[in-house]
Amino acid sequence: MSRQAQKLDSAAGDGAVGIGVLSLDLLGQVLHGLWEPRDRKACRLVSRAFERAEAAHRRALRVLRREPLPRLLRAFPALELLDLSACASLDDASLAAAVAGAGGGLAGLRSVCLARANGVGWRGLEALVAACPKLEAVDLSHCVSAGDREVAALAAAAGLRELRLDKCLAVTDMGLAKVVVGCPRLEKLSLKWCREISDIGIDLLAKKCPELRSLNISYLKVGNGSLRSISSLERLEELAMVCCSCIDDEGLELLSKGSDSLQSVDVSRCDHVTSEGLASLIDGRNFLQKLYAADCLHEIGQRFLSKLATLKETLTLLKLDGLEVSDSLLQAIGESCNKLVEIGLSKCSGVTDEGISSLVAQCSDLRTIDLTCCNLITNNALDSIADNCKMLECLRLESCSLINEKGLKRIATCCPNLKEIDLTDCGVDDAALEHLAKCSELRILKLGLCSSISDKGIAFISSKCGKLVELDLYRCNSITDDGLAALVNGCKRIKLLNLCYCNKITDTGLGHLGSLEELTNLELRCLFRITGIGISSVAIGCKSLIELDLKRCYSVDDAGLWALARYALNLRQLTISYCQVTGLGLCHLLSSLRCLQDIKMVHLSWVSIEGFELALRAACGRLKKLKMLCGLKTVLSPELLQMLQACGCRIRWVNKPLVYKD
């Protein structure tokens, strides 16, 4: 609990009457000033006045289990944003019942997230829309079973302005037609991976939704005809069409004849788009700010560069990943786009120190530079970046093996605002981390495959980088329990931690990790020294844990699963492949973790067929993703598999031999 929360707790305990006489508005402002959810919860638990204030002022709610949903909707009548994406086993009946039980409490609800809620169908959506007259935003992304009937249910929300249908695989032109006719005020629409939608649907969309500002048609099988229709949208500002293989330069020329309102265009992985087509698109686009052209261009022509120069005052982001570049090209980009804030050159061949130096000399406002796999650059490039880009916040250098601590010293000294750096497979050592420790604003540090890093380097980082939230130590196999002790002593805010293949770590090290209360994602793959004792320490201490990877942790047994079942109540994704667990432990785990949605359990040799059967039946209705050996497909009961699929669970079968022990 923070010091501020402790003071409020003390005040509530010693003089609850004093707090009780304060107005709900004042108490609401106090709660709003508490950043940590656990602090707000502490105040709510010790004072009914705070509880009433939160009920009156709470605007956002994220629900993890369906059972308390009706009560929560009644308790917070002022909600504007409701997130049900992690609500395990949510289905039509439970959603409709919760909505009905809320009475008029959802009258102010404006945004609902139902991403991956595969159990929700058209009946639940109809009930939701009917109860929320002010509904403006709905997210149904990754509801792979959602089709035209589900989308049609949303058409009754006439005030809808934002809709995400990413990977709603069964949605066709018919469903899209229902939405665009019923919701003409749409401003943001994402149809990514809705591959049954064609040029016909996009044409009707353009005619019926003139206020559209953001559109994502990535991975659709649409062609140039769709771009002709889209060009009529006079207010369109953002257009993403990643991997639209039927779109070419002719389509971009058609798009260029429309309004000049476009500010962001993404043609990444559009194989038939060339720099000539992009030149046509840029022509006259005086407001274009972001251009994504990753993995689509083979070369850049002079016409494209000349048109790029017309965006000198507006273009802030340019991604050219996978392009073959030269020093002269990078110099030309620097001269043409000196207002750039982000440049992406990931996997670009031909990137040299000279090219980077000429680029950054002109682009001093750069805050994000991606040089992933640009393996020709050396410390000289880092020197140029440090000298020119004083406001740098993100630097990605994965597989740039020619850099060392000298270049990183310059970066750390000259770029005090650095928040993210990726040094995966760069071979840096403890000396480099000693310099990077000067970056007190650092939030994300990736050091995977840097085998020279030891506990000493981790101690440098932990001593000064207290704001760190993500640390990747993949295959840093010199790290021991002492390094983890130093880490948790100084970096208490870590949320994501990758320790895969750091095989010197034992249960003692996991005991140290138990003090990371904010840890949400932990990867422990192939740590053969850890056992159920260490897993227990993590489960008890890391109450916020959401994802846990224990693949090939051969000594983890039922004791670890029992600890997870009892304490890791928020766990949503778990990998236990190759662990020495039995059917009893697996069954107890799956029956206890109400939030668990994704589990990978390949090669659980000690689990019998009956064990798998009982465990899966215990979790049926909650699981959304499941990974198992293909051999189980023929021995598990067909009724169970049908039931899992009917509840929206996607099963990935691994084609390896089935082995289990008696």
TrEMBL record:
Residues 204-413, 414-618 form the F-box/LRR-repeat protein 15-like leucin rich repeat domain. This is F-box/LRR-repeat protein 15-like leucin rich repeat domain-containing protein. GO terms for cellular component: SCF ubiquitin ligase complex. PANTHER family: F-BOX PROTEIN YLR352W, PARTNER OF PAIRED, ISOFORM B-RELATED. It comes from the Eukaryota. Gene3D superfamilies: Ribonuclease Inhibitor. One of its GO terms (biological process) is SCF-dependent proteasomal ubiquitin-dependent protein catabolic process. It comes from Miscanthus lutarioriparius.
